[in-house]
Amino acid sequence: MLENIDLSKTLDKAEYRKLKDEAELKLSALQRQAKELGIPVIIVFEGWGAAGKGTIINELILPLDPRGFKVYSTVAPTTEEAMHPFLWRFWQHTPARGRMTLFDRSWYGRVVGDRVEGTISGKELRQAFEDIRSFGRQLADDGNVIIKFFLHISKKEQKHRFNVLRGNPATAWRVSKSDLKQQKHYSEYLAASEDMLTETDSDYAPWTVVEAHDQRFATIKVFSTVIAALEKCIAARQQKQAVTPSTEAAPLTQMPEVFRSSILDRVDLSLTLTRKAYEDRLKKAQQALRELEYKIYTKRVPVIIAYEGWDAAGKGGNIRRVTQSLDPRGYEVVPIAAPNDLEKSHHYLWRFWVQMPKAGHITIFDRTWYGRVLVERVEGFCSEPEWRRAYREINEMEQHLTHAGAVLLKFWLHIDPAEQLRRFKEREKLAYKQWKITEEDWRNRKKIPQYRVAVEEMLYRTSTPFAPWTVVESNCKLHARIKVLETVCKAIQKRLK
Amino acid sequence: MLENIDLSKTLDKAEYRKLKDEAELKLSALQRQAKELGIPVIIVFEGWGAAGKGTIINELILPLDPRGFKVYSTVAPTTEEAMHPFLWRFWQHTPARGRMTLFDRSWYGRVVGDRVEGTISGKELRQAFEDIRSFGRQLADDGNVIIKFFLHISKKEQKHRFNVLRGNPATAWRVSKSDLKQQKHYSEYLAASEDMLTETDSDYAPWTVVEAHDQRFATIKVFSTVIAALEKCIAARQQKQAVTPSTEAAPLTQMPEVFRSSILDRVDLSLTLTRKAYEDRLKKAQQALRELEYKIYTKRVPVIIAYEGWDAAGKGGNIRRVTQSLDPRGYEVVPIAAPNDLEKSHHYLWRFWVQMPKAGHITIFDRTWYGRVLVERVEGFCSEPEWRRAYREINEMEQHLTHAGAVLLKFWLHIDPAEQLRRFKEREKLAYKQWKITEEDWRNRKKIPQYRVAVEEMLYRTSTPFAPWTVVESNCKLHARIKVLETVCKAIQKRLK
């Protein structure tokens, strides 16, 4: 989740003041409603040292009725606490119905800090993840709203902040030894955080990664997320209890677009490749891949390559370049269309499961199981609970595949709407390409904004350490083909090491 | 789950015929309804070699429309299958909507046979459990009814059956090498099976342990369980779809009492102890426990002793004998009554969590978190989904406690209704005991049958390898006290080794 986060986001002062004033009013009303309805609220702040957790928590509690919340600062456990299971002290501080607890750092330290420092590993680490997951689920089942933030800053930014703090005698004390250790071993903490976010993200207690370079941006993103979560839960509860919304109730606020973490915004579609460079690298990569194909065959490694992308993004041509030099006995391309009747009568993952490659073989999916959270979501072919559940189900399937030793690569072929339009028109003009363009393509095009939201959420929720997404800049097809080929080679080489 | 199973259960021939005829008619109607409603059904048979899986499957499919089901016999994976993730071949055979798959052995072999044979362990084993759990949950979320049987026979019975089979040239081939290995390493297979049952029991895919010494008994238990599960799912589905039950629909069948696995039936309440033997053993055990108290203090082991039992079973006196010689700085007795307002405003496990002992200390709970599945269930203080969920939540809590190193002991103090009546009357007569008897005790007494069902299910679903129940025969208080004391000592000694 972290590697694709755009840390350059900012918010100007005037906009900030306006949004903050609105948000404060809303939050204060929502706290009262949550209290009336007896909803317990848990807000967790995790993230890098000096990412601004304290400052944001201060902003967040200002509009709240102080009788209704408490802030629990997680420091090293006391002797008493260290003598109990690690979740014990957090159980103590779970909020009563109608109350709110804000955790400044929390139980997740067990699987990040403790892990990097080597005080926990192996079986104990697996157990900690299990215990954390059941803790969250039990509280959610009991009616708790659980909102979790990970405040993200880069290694460079953290270093800069530490330097500023240390340069001032009044603030130097705030940089602790463990902060400096985190700076030094940033990449290990990053890997552990990635793993933690994947292992503990769930529909009942989802993580929100907050781009925390700009304090104003981060603050409003936190406010908006809390407001959206509370409004959603309160609306659901009122419906269940058939309570008429009180006059305080505002219509459900949509999280402003700017605060959504965007991966696509940052894709540099200007990347191109000259024909000459393309042909050189293509030849080399294809040759390498052919050799790797034999190696994975003898080593019995299954390889799964999943293609998704916008209509006309060039999936077909891209796949052809991957397979061109391969031994046909070693790979298979599986095109995915709408499910047939038999497929529909099974679990939606069933038809993909049965197509998975055996050890030593390559399967390339032209469109994939991600249809569940893309077309099925946007077109309403499945219900919201179904596509929400699918993120977890898909991650579980991919994890099972990698448990069994598979290399799993997922490519999102990205083009912008203007390029898509150009290609559509070209297809209409050229007789030999006309079969490629249908009425449906034009219909889909009208829904680009909805698809974009779905794509963003997919990339965000299903980019895992074991099965990461690669976004492929595809306005230039030559660049796109080389990027995929070289990424596949690299991943297989890494696995064979 | 297995150690308390009563394998002596039988069913006579006439009763068997009658029940079987009824069951066949019902099952056949239910299959049609499941088909109409598009419900996929998965029935899994696991258990010991020669436990009778094949025979029962044959009985079960006789009344079924052969166009609606298939039997999948799990043998060693083919080369093709072995080259895929271990769940791959089972995914292939999951039933389409409205169809039924019976698995003769299944994916659970991965965590029993493969484990005992040492082909899987450590991280891989944890992963297999995770993969199995998500497999089941995904299918259940998609509407599958999942019914799982574990056919249980003793080591001796298995040996006997193998001998009979091998004694006849026509059947000798049926005893395989791996069968004989299982016989030889019965206790290891038993431990792995116990663990598997605990790790993969869930509300969406519960295990039913079948006492399989008597083939007739086992057959009818399987029929009844399948019928109850199908009826329940069909009724829920019809309600959801607002379908008027067709004329075929029968009222929900209650599983006949005799087929419920009973742990209490087998408790030998005639066990007694002479005063002399009692006093000798009491002194010895108390002394041993005091020494152990110091040892766990220095070794920082937390000990949790949980008491549950019928009213007037003698919990108070029993606890006094445990604490009598203990150093009061090292233990605490926590009496549990109805929750107060603050406690009610939290998760029901919260008040127990905060009372858990710190490392090196003993906490004795006089009544416990099991109130959720006993009094709260019987009196309707919580909803059915809530108490059903509680089995898992409680197992998770206890697992978390033992992850943190705790010794956890749970005692069910058992007396029969006649003995309870005698004690109630005695309490009314004796002035110094009158405070012990209230109107509520008499009210509870009227609900003994309902409580008994709840107790049986509690013992069954929450007896885990990490936190087993000990049923204490308490008609004789002297016996009961010694049994508890000695069990506590033994468990602590085992932990300290």
Give your account of this protein's structure:
The structure is a homodimer of 497-residue chains. Chain A has a five-stranded parallel sheet with strand order 2-3-1-4-5, with helices on both faces. In chain A, strands 7-8-6-9-10 form a five-stranded parallel sheet, sandwiched between helices. The first copy, chain A, contains 20 helices and ten strands. Chain A is globular, with a radius of gyration of 25 Å. Chain A is of the alpha/beta class. In chain A, 51% of the residues lie in helices and 12% in strands. Chain A folds into two domains: 247 residues, P-loop containing nucleotide triphosphate hydrolases (Rossmann fold), CATH 3.40.50.300; 232 residues, Rossmann fold (3-Layer(aba) Sandwich), CATH 3.40.50.300. The longest helix of chain A has 27 residues. The mean pLDDT of chain A is 91. Chains A and B meet through helix 4, helix 6 and helix 16 of A and helix 4, helix 6 and helix 16 of B.
Computed over alpha carbons, the radius of gyration of chain A is 25 Å
Helix content of chain A: 40-55%
Approximate strand percentage of chain A: 5-15%
User: Termini distance of chain A?
Assistant: 25 Å
CATH class of the largest domain in chain A: Alpha Beta
In what order do the strands lie side by side in the largest sheet of chain A?
Answer: 2-3-1-4-5
Number of separate domains of chain A? 2
Largest interface between protein chains, with number of residues from each side: A-B, 54 and 54 residues
Integer average pLDDT of chain A: 91
